[in-house]
Amino acid sequence: MTPGDALLCYCRAGFEPELAAELGERAAVAGHPGYARTQRNSGFVEFLGAEAGALSQALPFDSLIFARQKLTRISELRGLDPKDRITPILRALETILSNAYTFGDVWVEHPDSDEAKPLAGLARSFGNALRPALRKRGWLTGVDDPRRARLHVVFLAGDHVLLAIGEAGDSAPWPLGIPRLRMHADAPSRSALKLEEALMVLLSEKEREQLLREGMRGADLGASPGGWSWVLTRQGLRVISVDNGPLQEKLLEGGRVEHLREDGFHWQPRAPLDWMVCDMVEQPRRVAERMATWLREGWCRHTIFNLKLPMKKRWDETRLCLDLFERQAQKPLQVRARQLYHDREEITVFATVTPLSRR
């Protein structure tokens, strides 16, 4: 079992209370109560419990909504000398790890917050200096190995570092938990990045191959100007884009998109579809109920939608909406939700009636 004294989770700056509340409630339900330590706008939460390894197993990363990354903290180092930060880190690792422990990679990071962003240059240069020292001690493989656990060195200040471990398969495979996506020149809007990230984060590669195939049919509710429809067409789908507003003209030229000028919140298809996606600005409980109707009535098999959260009690609203959605769907579902990097005051939900395995 991975050594450690706490969980370390990254999140969107400003959502630390929501992540802390989620971790506290889920840990208590799993029989591993603990307490969160964080500061508003810090971009991370530390959750301390009786036994970090057992706590980590009880809170798998895929089940967390407000966490971009989940790590096991193994040490906290303060008062580091800028002239030699490596020696204290090696000394801490010697105390904690067995000689047989070998990491597949090391990531030197900083929280994604305004206060920590000036540390980016230090993190880059320090990583280049630390890697040879870790390889010399036998703690780092010669070639990056994604099957092994990663060492995370997290700078909170120039003299303050957290050491943590990211387990393969139970953590995000991107630095800071942020997949790097670029805005495509042909995308009708930046909202396309949200759906692209949702497909990358909420579905495995195998699931994308299984659930997104050439010739499938989908609907995009509240589609204007067409960012999410554009993403679906790039996956091979034929799309009904429902919105009283206009779509980008170029989107209609390929023949894969049919534009219906109707209210996406009330429209229903004449025949069952493979997919429905929705990014409408509406009260989250109304959206949850409408999405449940689509699955209950068999209008689609898979869906991705956003829930716009209120300013207060966002964890409570998230839990209520997801419970409402699953209850009103009235059939067994697999549901995954995450606050994505490209989300703002919202979360993104994937649900399917098809039994899935992420492996």
Automatic annotation (TrEMBL):
EC number(s) per entry: 2.1.1.186
Catalytic activity: cytidine(2498) in 23S rRNA + S-adenosyl-L-methionine = 2'-O-methylcytidine(2498) in 23S rRNA + S-adenosyl-L-homocysteine + H(+)
Subunit text: Monomer.
Name of the protein: Ribosomal RNA large subunit methyltransferase M
Catalytic site positions: 308 (proton acceptor)
Record GO biological process: methylation
Function, as annotated: Catalyzes the 2'-O-methylation at nucleotide C2498 in 23S rRNA.
Domain (RlmM ferredoxin-like) ranges: 6-71
EC primary class: transferase
Organism: Lysobacter stagni
GO molecular function, one term: methyltransferase activity
Lineage: Bacteria, Pseudomonadati, Pseudomonadota, Gammaproteobacteria, Lysobacterales
Residues that, per the record, bind S-adenosyl-L-methionine: 191, 224-227, 243, 263, 279
